[in-house]
Amino acid sequence: MIVTILVTVLVLGVLIFVHELGHFAAAKSVGIDVPRFSIGLGPKMVGFRRGGTEYVLSWIPLGGYVKMAGMADEEVTSTLEGGGDPVETAAETAGRRPGPGPGDFDGKPLWARVFAISAGVIMNWLFAVVAFAALAMGRGVFEPRIAEVAPGSPAAEAGLRSDDLIRRVDGAAVHDPTQVTMRIERRPGESIDIVVERGGEELTFVATPEAVEQYSDLTGESRTVGRVGITIGADGGRAGPIAALGRGWSDTAYWSGAILQFLGDLVTGRSSAREVGGPILIGEISGRAARAGFWELLSFMAIISVNLAIFNLLPIPVLDGGHLLFLGIEAVRGRALSVQARVRFTTVGMFFVLALMVWAVGNDVLRVLLR
After folding, report:
1. Which of these is catalytic: 20, 54, 75, 88?
2. 20 included as an active-site residue
């Protein structure tokens, strides 16, 4: 249990730090004042001040923030952020002088504000690219090559053979066995195209995965998944630096697409909302990954980093995506939304995110109780 807690703190701490470091560095580079850099939310645990910025660890380890001077939603998020900041809110500043100050977020050009807001997500993606590249160089790559085809299975009926190298499944490029399994699982009872390389040629086969009931650790219930009857996986050896970076980029792109597809499936009902997990689930998987070894833990951290990037890009006020939405509206209108409008939208967004957090933690608790 102690190991799991420590690993969870490490995983979340590193990824939150990477995200907030992106915001911090970008803000500083364009001249935005940063009164506080926090890992964690809520009241301050410990901290120190240097160069006009207070660096703190806060008590609630479910996020972090970089407080940029002169942002319109400061007053809404001050409770989550622990309050106590000596810098005026945007509303107070607007009431005291005709325009933003030289170090205020709202006083910077549009491109500078977009850069400062986007930098956290960019850093999470870069972390994932580097982590996946390190995996390719250190652990090596595993090719999605078919080792065995079960007689009479959908794969055998489609014409797949052992030693076929799978290139695409259901229209998406795949680079390792896990990606193949995930694509097939999502289409029980539906015809899918499987493109393989055989003898230097690319061949396309159509298979219909059998519907199989499988227990889900995420929901605590059985779910229906697709199976075509193949065993896959071959050691492709360690990649060189250039090939590893390419692999890192392609793996990050794949997981970004997979997460977006999952969000789409939540909306359409193809995936259950019970599959949304919170910090307890992250902790459990972190502990398992740590026990499996360094490379498994690094792989898990890369996937979670992509999740954080996608989540923060959702167009919900209070998240990075919400700020980018405001900036997009400003670019179209030629002027920013009023401070009051941004505060109202941010308040709604904050309550939505808090509700989502409560839902995720509730799923975690139910999952533990139903075991």
Report:
1. 20
2. yes
